[in-house]
Amino acid sequence: MTHDDYIRLLTAIREQSALQKRFIVAIDGRCGSGKTTLAARLQQDLCCSVFHMDDYFPRLEQRTEERLSQPGENVDHERFWEEVLLPLRDGRPMITYRPYLCAQQQLGQPVTVEAGRIAIVEGSYACHPSLWQHYDLRIFLSVEPGEQMRRIRKRNGPEKAVQFAQRWIPFEEIYFRAFRVQERCDIQLEG
After folding, report:
1. CA angle 176–150–173, rounded 5-degree value
2. What single DSSP character describes residue 150?
3. Three-state DSSP class for 28?
4. I need a labelling partner for 45 at 20 to 30 A (CA). Which of 101, 104, 118, 166 fits?
5. Which residue range forms the structural domain that includes residue 120?
């Protein structure tokens, strides 16, 4: 993403959110495309709250063959809706949720976040069909496959990169195609 792209995005969010009491932005896209980095930069420049879809990895009992065979079901979108999006839409000033801790295979301690006027939801599956209508702006970040794997290897190491290439990237690509996520988003950027 160029500096000019970022300034245009920042300006669009400021202008579109100006007349709304609460403005919710989704940043979806390919792993390694810079979703978390973009959300952190926007949080700094907009003084907004950020919620991470990585905190909503499916709980053990949800990881059934039947569920995971369906596009976009590699996320606990039901719990995300109840704990984050519904309270945001209801205008609650504080949002309390329990992140899923993959290493412990359980929900962590409650985390409370001041909602703010602008809220950003970042991560793969943020634009899941059950969540889509609750956003005011949807952004899709893409990245070239070679650069994607370079970033994943740097971030997660070579062993985890293999797992991404064999499991997580194919899950994402099926979801993107099935729901035409990239094409339907309001803004598409190269991360």
Report:
1. 10
2. H
3. strand
4. 101
5. 3-190
Query: Is residue 133 packed enough to be buried (19+ CB in 10 Å), middle (13-18) or exposed (0-12)?
Result: exposed
Residue 21's CB is within 10 A of a number of other CB atoms, namely 7
Nearest to 125 by CA among 181, 87, 47: 181
pLDDT digits (tens, 9 = 90+) for 1-60: 899 999 999 999 999 999 899 999 999 999 999 999 999 999 999 999 999 999 999 998
SS3 at position 58 = coil
Quick count: other Cβ atoms within 10 Å of Cβ 30? 23
Helix, strand, or coil (residue 144): coil
Residue 93: give its domain's CATH number.
3.40.50.300
Q: Token match 């606990």: residue? A: 76
DSSP element (H, E) containing 70: none
Question: Does the model's pTM come out above 0.85?
Answer: yes
Burial class (CB in 10 A: 0-12, 13-18, 19+), 184: middle
**Tally of structural domains, the chain:** 1
Nearest to 175 by CA among 118, 119, 124: 124
Q: Which of 144, 132, 125 is nearest to 62 (CA)?
A: 125
Determine the Cα–Cα distance for residues 7 and 41; give it in Å rounded to an integer: 11
